[in-house]
Amino acid sequence: LAESSAQLVSACNSNPEEISAATRSTLGSAMSLLGNAKGASRLTDNKVINNNLTEAVEAVADSTNKLLKAAKQQRHDMFQDHKAQSKLSAATSDVVRKISVVVDAASDMPGGLL
Asked: How far is CA 60 from CA 33, 88, 94, 96, 113, in A?
């Protein structure tokens, strides 16, 4: 997800014809993360661990949605609005931060991160 988010930002900044593919990749990565978290939650009956993982993944989904919206805005305002660029950058940073929270939550699962 972090890699596809970076590709999306790169496309928005310098290669507009790749925005659609980068958007699809980012969305697909987010969906994969959601599916993996759902599967991982079945590995333990510990409600605290499951809640932490669920909340972390929901936060990533929300951040990814904001990133996609920022990319859409950037596409419309290409090279004209520095605020759109700032929002895109902030949204990307937020996704990366939220991914690290998911990694932390996943490390509490039985077997941790292998």
From this structure: 9, 15, 8, 8, 18
